[in-house]
Amino acid sequence: MTESTPLLSVQNLSIALPRGGDRPYAVQDVSYDIRSGEILCIVGESGSGKSMSANAIMGLLPDYLTPQQGRILFRGQDLLRQEEPALQAMRGKDMAMIFQEPLSALNPLMTVGEQISEVMRVHDAYPGARRMARTLEMLAFVGLPDPAALYHVYPFRLSGGQRQRVMIAMALALEPALLIADEPTTALDVTTQAQILALIARIQKEKGMGVMFVTHDFGVVAEIAHRVAVMEKGIVVEQGPADEVLNRPRHPYTQRLIAAVPHRRGDERAAAEHERPVLDVRNLKKTYVVGRGWLGGRREVHAVDDVSFSVRQGETLGIVGESGSGKSTIGKCLLKLVGIDGGQLVFNGQDIAAMPEARFRPLRHDIQMIFQDPYASLNPRHTVGRIISDGPAANGVPRARAEARARELLALVGLDPSAFDRYPNEFSGGQRQRVGIARALALEPKVLVADESVSALDVSVQAQVLQLLHDLQQRLKIALVFITHDLRVAAQICNAVLVMHRGKVVEYGTPAQIFDNPRHAYTRQLIAAVPGQHWDPSRAQAA
Predict the structure, then answer these.
(1) Which residue segments constitute the domains of the chain, with CATH numbers given?
(2) 23: which of 170, 217, 311, 490 lies 20 to 30 Å off by Cα?
(3) Neighbour count for residue 504 (Cβ, 10 Å)
(4) Using 50, 70 and 90 to split pLDDT, how confident is the model at 295?
């Protein structure tokens, strides 16, 4: 194979869907190449076919999905014509895959070391003591501490970032020529994501591998890609060098995706300083007992430690931080879904923290939450109309009036009137989130808490929901508490930003103050970890 010959060449690949319908193909006439020493990012939204083509390369398609046409040439061999034993011999040794959710991909009954060693055992590589040595070497290579101790640890005891490093160690144990990474950083905090991206880029450079990196995040693309292929509804609509696709996109779909990437507003809105705070949080504390220490002593975690802030009518306060920072616990405290251990929650002049539940219940409709996972928070046995109207009906609104209001709210959040009689499973993720917003608004709240409400959405759907929240808030003058780990989203939507670290507020100010002149080292670390900072999506020009 010459230097100009692709390591992997996908040629006119089509994979039919079993029922056909409006979209008969999951992947249609897809072609792209990957060379040794190159990172190709496949970017697109859910349902675009990017993961489907990755699974086809590895021979991991389900039985009901069969490629109808095309070739997948790996080192000149057509993988679609290989029998399963031949593909098994290649997986792990010649080509390997890192999956999106390592906790699902790792065996919970095997230790970390056993799972890395198994890759070598299956391929009869590194026999005897060399296998253990190689396993420890790989754990150290991906930056995990104390490999000898970690060898005997089970996956559930590791953090998400550590589990992803274990997956990378497994994938690289036999030094494959091709590495496929399917959304490997989507569920990770920004600093952990930055570490994993840097690790993959370093390994790719050192080993000269070809890497196929599947993602929906253009910031990640800007950070690591040499070349980019954009997929929409199973079709590659655009591909080329990263600089061309990111800065001079040709296809309207690529242009729409890039336009939807969160970025700082040029016309940053000022907070309404003259307004009295709707919600004033003073010295809030919440402690969890997570276990027992030596000699029977309690082991405590200060999830929220002396936190204070206020939110005014029509203002958006962003609470940002990584997993474990305490930001979601604050949201639960605001709605009194968990008890607090100290401080005040002053809502419209009343300390609701000190109120017994019977007194607070009539005020519950004034503080509502949009949850992170709308599918888990919507009752699958109830229609959307009932889901939205049940709250007002339970608060004394006649059912007919509550249902009429539900129809109005469906129109307000941009859903078709037919949605009223449909069930949650009949909607996309973005549509379900709109239902969650309509449900929260049904009780006409004065404070709306959005807990990671756009983190699971594709970039264009995310942009639509953010715009919807902004428009509704301005129209209804709601105080919005927006909880997120994505600093780009916070910069776009918020008047003020509060940065949390290990239960404490480390910085509080306007987006301009936080992002242009961060004072705290942790804030600077978070901002530095945002992928693709050298790329400004707002300056991308259509080719």
Answers:
(1) 8-259 (3.40.50.300), 277-532 (3.40.50.300)
(2) 217
(3) 16
(4) very low
